[in-house]
Structure formats: C-alpha cells, structure tokens
From TrEMBL:
Annotated ranges, domain Carbohydrate kinase PfkB: 7-286
Catalysed reactions, as listed in the record: beta-D-fructose 1-phosphate + ATP = beta-D-fructose 1,6-bisphosphate + ADP + H(+); D-tagatofuranose 6-phosphate + ATP = D-tagatofuranose 1,6-bisphosphate + ADP + H(+)
PANTHER family from the UniProt entry: 1-PHOSPHOFRUCTOKINASE, 1-PHOSPHOFRUCTOKINASE-RELATED
Enzyme Commission number(s) from the entry: 2.7.1.144
Superkingdom field: Bacteria
Protein name: Tagatose-6-phosphate kinase
Species assigned in the record: Lacticaseibacillus suilingensis
Molecular function per GO: 1-phosphofructokinase activity
Family label: Belongs to the carbohydrate kinase pfkB family. Belongs to the carbohydrate kinase PfkB family. LacC subfamily.
Pathway membership, UniProt: Carbohydrate metabolism; D-tagatose 6-phosphate degradation; D-glyceraldehyde 3-phosphate and glycerone phosphate from D-tagatose 6-phosphate: step 1/2
Functional description taken from the UniProt entry: Catalyzes the ATP-dependent phosphorylation of fructose-l-phosphate to fructose-l,6-bisphosphate.
Top EC class of this enzyme: transferase
Signal peptide boundaries: none
Amino acid sequence: MIYSITLNPSIDYVIALPDLELGRVNHLSSAVMLPGGKGINVSRILKALGIASTALGFSGGFTGAFIEDQLAQLQVAHHLTTTAAATRLNVKLHAQSETELNAAGPQITAAEVEAFTSDLKARLQPGDVVIMAGSLPQGLPTSFYRDLIPMIHAAKAEFVIDTTGQALLDTLPDHPLVVKPNHHELAALFGDAEYTDLQQVVTAGRKLLKLGAQHVLVSMAGKGALMITADHAYHGTVAPGQVINSVGAGDSMLAGFTGTLMQTGDAQAAFKAGIACGSATAFSQDLATKAKIAEVAATITMEEI
Ligand SMILES: Nc1ncnc2c1ncn2[C@@H]1O[C@H](COP(=O)(O)OP(=O)(O)O)[C@@H](O)[C@H]1O
Ligand SMILES: O=P(O)(O)OC[C@H]1O[C@](O)(COP(=O)(O)O)[C@@H](O)[C@@H]1O
C-alpha cells in the first residue's frame, strides 16, 4: 500500500482575473475551491492512475470537512486525524502571473500528534511506501518527518520525501526511495545561486545520491525534468501546451514516478509517467485526469545528457 502523508493540507482557492490592481476592488473572472496539500494531491493522481493509496494527515474545522468530503466524492481512500483547529486555506492567484499565498496552518496538539502516529504505526506493513510531502503545521518540530523514519523502517516499509532545506538533507542518510526537488530548491539546498545549465543540476543531483537518496528527480517547470543516476542523466520534456494551473504539478510528478516505480520497478517508465502527470496537471484547471495524462504521455521526448 502507498500512504501519502499531508500534515498541513489546504483548501486551494484558485482565483483568476485578467489584471490585479493592488489597493483597488478587483472582480474575479473565476473562482474554484480544490482539496489541496502535497500528499493529498499525490493520492488524487494515484487514483487517476488506478493505483491504490490512502491519504493520511490532519484535518479540522469546516475547511477540513470540505477536503474530506471532496476526497470521498473522488473515492480517494483517506483517514485524516481530526484536529480542533481548522485546516488552512491557500490562495492561488492567476492574474498577470501566478501568485501563491500559503498560510502557516493550524496549531496541532500533542494528543493529535499521538493519535496520528499511532494510526500510522498500526497500518504499516512490509513493502509499503510512505510519501511524506509538504510543510509542517504549527506545533510540530522541524524533525517530524525524520522522526517517523525509524517507525517506517521497523515495519520494513520505505519512504519518499518532498520537503525542502535542512529537513530534506536530514532524511537522506536514511535512503529515501525518491526525492524530487525543483531546480530552485536544489540550488538553495547547497547554497548555490540559480543553476544556468543542466550539467550544474546534474552535479547537484548526484550529491543527493551520494548523501543517500535512491532515486533523484529534479523538476524544472516548463523546462521539463531530469532523472539523475550515478552514471546517467536523462532530460524529459513534453510538447508545449497551454498552462492553465500549475499548482500540484510537482505533486503529480512525484505520484506518477513513485506509483509506476512500485508497479513496474522500471525507473525509466516511472520517469516518463512522472513527466506526463506533472505536465498534464499544468495543462489542466484541477489536477490531471487519466485521459489528459495519456494525451500528454504520447508527446514525451527524452534524451540522455
Ligand atoms: N509550464 C509547464 N509546462 C509543461 N510542463 C510543466 C509546466 N510546469 C510544470 N510542468 C511539469 O510538472 C513538473 C513539476 O513541475 P514543477 O513546477 O517543476 O514542480 P514544483 O511544483 O514541485 O515546483 C515539471 O518537471 C514538468 O514536467
Ligand atoms: O505544504 P506547502 O509546502 O505549504 O504546500 C502546499 C501547497 O502545495 C500544493 O500541494 C501544490 O504543490 P506543488 O505545486 O508543489 O505540486 C498545493 O495544493 C498546496 O496549497
């Protein structure tokens, strides 16, 4: 079983207007609420791919109820630990450019943390994969993901991690199955300025392998993604399309890669699936559908660099 963990889910309030004027009353041309948060997005894409997963994490208040209701409607298996404080709402503003306003998230109590960790412990079985993704709500230590790893390994399960900075570096000695920073996050991880060519990205990606990651992907938004192994590096892209809402593209890539890797054991096939899912989501209002993923998959170009 794949478990996605979203400690800090969100309602993603995706709003659009042609031209945002700060300090004025602006009228929206569209507004939609979507269940969001990195692990939840991963589970939604796995569902589209026909791969079973259960979404775990926290949920509280009317915002949490909305997310759980949407997941139920989408038939995404989930068990979110109830919190007294309400789940956050993130604003995704599409005007002259894409702007994201992500809230810090609610305060989680010690009893709620205990309920979540005991639930996870009771579920884990050998061969499971736990995908830990996204920011931490208030009240959780920055070591929270790393602290879950001994429990995951004790159950003979593996983990995938999508977080940034020191929290990501701290988990590498425990051999995450997959890491997928974007190229900005990768440069920041090693205190580098923005990378200007692909070989710089490959060199930094190999550092993640040396530090312990089993599979390294680096996403580069409209410039596609790299899969970096000890001896090879592959650059994958898709045919240009109309970008509608790239929120969740990274989560979609992680879902496509991890789900396909678990199903087939074939990293190249998994990389293609990851690219297709990421770009298909960027070319959709909500996360990608199965049909959109198949359409985009037919346009993938991959080259060794
Ligand atoms: N504008 C885009 N056009 C085509 N594909 C995209 C676009 N934005 C994202 N993608 C696809 O989704 C993947 C993940 O997107 P990215 O923005 O790099 O991740 P993150 O959301 O984690 O920053 C990219 O590697 C690419 O395959
Ligand atoms: O947990 P964080 O880092 O605040 O990110 C949460 C936000 O990221 C998303 O999961 C989208 O992530 P990506 O665009 O990186 O795939 C949104 O659904 C959510 O609003």
